[in-house]
Amino acid sequence: MWIFGWKGPSGFSARSTAEQVTQGIDGTGLTAIVTGASSGIGVETARVLALRGVHVVMAVRNVQNGTKVKEAILKEIPSAKVEVMHLDLSSMASVRKFASDYISSGLPLNLLINNAGIGLPPFLLSEDNIEIQFATNHIGHFLLTDLLLDTMKSTACQSNQEGRIINLSSEGHRLVRSERILFDKINDNSGVLGYARSKLANILHANELARRLKEDGVNLTANSVHPGAIATNLARHNSILDGTMSILGKLVLKNIQQGAATTCYIALHPQVKGVTGKYFMDSNVAKPSSLGVDAGLARKLWDFSFKLTNPN
């Protein structure tokens, strides 16, 4: 259990913080997009990356909150390079606009951290008629990654530095026991099962992306992360669960600094150079469910997601 702080092969444990796993690493010259950087572990991820010299673009739905986070980071780290851009992952139109604006800016892109996520909201369809958790947690990130991939490939080639793509998943993905849940009656599975489905999709997306990047021979990696059980506002839509997590958070859950550690570790640490298509937990490689390593299912989900995001 994480509370005992057992260290894995990386030398880090669940008790390690984002600052500790990146201690001594210089990220100067790197540019990162962090989705959902206006709350929870996204804030700490953006802060620590900026602390290490990374130029951070905060892709957020609430620009006002994002601006407050940016101001707080700059107050602590006056030399930080931080920008805020609007992105609503539940809207394909918003994702396309963000990607277009980013590409037009001419900025390079070394790190794409698909961090944003929602959990257990009331049943709702996105403007694209997709269950809101699947739309936000998977489809939005799938499309965003696809649209920015050429920029990442170009950056990796020109800079001769490895680009890294990180999908935040969850151990909740283990609740999905059948592949049909990913595809059948896509808008019927909300609640816990809908959340679990989106988190399994995050792992499968990273795995299939890693396979394709290897096949293309480009200097990019793709991995997925379980940040740990953390007391954030992810469950804000469920008052009972939110209250329970608030109580547990004081006893056994990770804090925000520990929750952001694995993401920051994969983003910056030289130990993971060349490592791709893996699932990480507590800053160490972990084993996902059997469905999470199903290569055929990953390819099937890729095709399914591509058709959703490219209907014409």
Summary keywords:
312 residues, single chain, 11 helices
Give an account of the 3D structure.
The chain has 11 helices and 8 strands. It is of the alpha/beta class and 312 residues long. It has an 8-stranded mixed β-sheet with strand order 3-2-1-4-5-6-7-8, with helices on both faces. β2, α3 and β3 form a beta-alpha-beta unit. The longest helix has 28 residues, at 132-159.
TL;DR of this structure?
With 312 residues, the protein is an alpha/beta fold. It contains 11 helices and 8 strands.
Break the fold down into its secondary structure elements and pairings.
Elements: H1 18-21, E1 31-35, H2 40-51, E2 55-60, H3 63-76, E3 82-86, H4 92-105, E4 111-114, H5 132-159, E5 163-168, H6 180-183, H7 191-216, E6 220-226, H8 239-249, H9 256-259, H10 261-268, E7 279-281, E8 284-286, H11 295-309
Parallel strand pairs: 1-2, 1-4, 2-3, 4-5, 5-6, 6-7
Antiparallel strand pairs: 7-8
Side-by-side strand order of the widest sheet: 3-2-1-4-5-6-7-8
Could you list the spans in which at least 5 consecutive residues all have pLDDT below 50?
Answer: none
H/E topology pattern: HEHEHEHEHEHHEHHHEEH
Mean pLDDT: 92
How many strand segments? 8
Largest sheet: 8 strands, mixed
Structural Rg = 18 Å
Strand content: 5-15%
* C-alpha termini separation: 48 Å
Strand pairing plus helix content: what structural class? alpha/beta
What is the general shape?
globular
Share of residues in helices? 40-55%
In DSSP terms, counting alpha (H) and pi (I) runs of 4 or more, how many helices?
Answer: 11
